[in-house]
Amino acid sequence: MSDIRPPDAVIDIMRRLKDAGHTCYVAGGAVRDLVMGRVPADWDIASSALPADVERLFPRTVPTGIAHGTVTVLHGGMQVEVTTYRQDGPYSDGRHPDYVSFAPDIRDDLARRDFTMNAMAYDPIEDCLVDPFGGREHIRHRLIVCVGDPMVRFTEDKLRMVRAARFASTLGFDVHPSIVQACSQLASEIVQVAAERIIAELVRMMEGVEPSKGLALLDETGLLAHIMPDLAGEVAADRRRELYAACDSLPQWAWERWALVLSPIGPERARQVLLSLRASRHQAATVYRIMSGAEALRDVAPADGGGGGAEGAGGGGGRLPEARQLRQIARQVGADALLSSVRVFLALRGELAEGAGSAEWAEGGGVPEGEGVGLGGHPLLLMAATVLASNPPLKVSDLAINGKDIMAAAGLESGPAVRRILERLLDEVILDPAANTRDRLIELAVKCAKALSRDQR
Ligand code: ATP
Ligand code: MG
After folding, report:
1. Pairwise CA distance, residues 4 & 7, whole Å
2. Which of 233, 244, 339, 439 is most deeply buried (CB count within 10 A of its CB)?
3. Which CATH number fits domain 1-132: 3.30.460.10, 3.20.20.80, 3.30.930.10, 3.40.309.10?
4. Pairwise CA distance, residues 115 & 317, whole Å
């Protein structure tokens, strides 16, 4: 079926299960990946074996989710989840089955899965694909289709609606019209799902190849209005759509993309929106910093002359700021946010080149160092990358002298005056990084101390 073979450890585990009289398959996302010719990240096995059987058969296991039938087998340097075929009981909380029971047949297990592309099983030993719902054909048509009636399946578990948006983005697939319709009807019920689960899917959606697809589904069905009322309620639909499209050109990093999409409501409200969705403080602060940087760029890099002002006006009709202005912004928002700020700023102005995104980013979950060159090559982006590459002093701790040096040179006690002098010195080296030498800063610190004591008299 695919040239990609499961690792030997997975085959070993499956052989041993079969030798003991059980049936087993690779199931779920791994089969979807295989059918798409991609190398799966995890190889989950579904089996008729009960958790106790699995624990008996393998010397090293972890009871990861015994109640749900999952045992992790440690074998050949891998951790492989083996889960007993399950059938879900009725759903009454809109998210979880009231109970699950073990089932004898893989087909029962596949029937409870969300989308047809995720409801296939594969036996690599027999090279046999079990595909009862047409998953392979739907993948060929790049279409997300529910297993069964979307109204029924989304009523059972509302999170599946957001998962549809996640997969639309990560796979670049369209969603079947019946999914759009069901999402529209059930949108208001998304509030039954814990914010943590929603944000986890939204982050994966924003790391996808085509976030505009997922965002469009959430938007058009009214799901977004319930998840992020601030955004949906106040930003014109046309503008929202432009922002979604621009997201596709940014690196596959969720927080930079959120900064773009949430730009119309400003950094502080964006931070609140993300915190209320249970993003971490750090994640919300990252978005805040990126957005603040993009706002600051508006003042120093106006689209049509005025302000700003380095020689040789920049690309896209705007003017380039001076290097010191970029250093000032980097001081304010953090060096790690500067390139993201520049890209968001350019995207908001419709000036980010197509294909500026870089898939390599998705992994690390942070802004990589030294990026910028080759990301669309906008002069402002190149300039920001150059500024950062020179590693300029941007924090008090980057200065060539510290508070103790100042106290010794200027005869000061420790106190707020020392901090103020350090900040003044940083002002100077932001203007002129070459001033960041011990001698020069000691000289400046003594002058500052004198000026401060004169002011106090
Ligand atoms: P990825 O490779 O991106 O992790 P995945 O398909 O493995 O994608 P998971 O969220 O890890 O996605 O889920 C594993 C499998 O479990 C899915 O392929 C699907 O068959 C099933 N599944 C997960 N969540 C649900 C759900 N809410 N309802 C029904 N089936 C689900
Ligand atoms: Mg998975």
Report:
1. 9
2. 339
3. 3.30.460.10
4. 46
**CB-based burial label for 185 (10 Å; 0-12, 13-18, 19+):** middle
C-alpha span between 375 and 251 (Å, rounded): 9
Whole-prediction pTM: 0.89
Can you tell me the mean pLDDT for 111-134? 97
CA 24 to chain centre: 34
- Which residues neighbour ligand 2 (ion) by CB within 5 Å? 29
How many whole angstroms from 232 Cα to the centroid of ligand 2?
Answer: 30
Stretch 209-216: mean pLDDT, rounded?
A: 98
From 177, 179, 232, 170, select the one nearest 201 (Cα to Cα). Answer: 170
- Among the bound ligands, name the one nearest to the CA of residue 204: 1
**pLDDT of 428 above 90:** yes
Ligand 1 proximal residues by C-beta, below 6 Å: 28-29, 41, 113-114, 118-119, 157, 159-160
What pairs with residue 24 in β-bridges? 47
Q: Helix, strand or coil for residue 235?
A: coil
Nearest atom in ligand 1 to 166's CA: 3
Gap from CA of 42 to ligand 2 centroid (Å): 7
**Closest-CA residue to 114 (of 91, 92, 140, 81):** 91
Residue 115 sits at φ, ψ, to 5 deg, of: -120, 155
Token pair recorded at residue 136? 């392979």
Centroid of ligand 1 to alpha carbon of 100 (angstroms): 16
pLDDT tens for residues 230-267? 998 889 999 999 999 999 999 999 999 999 999 999 99
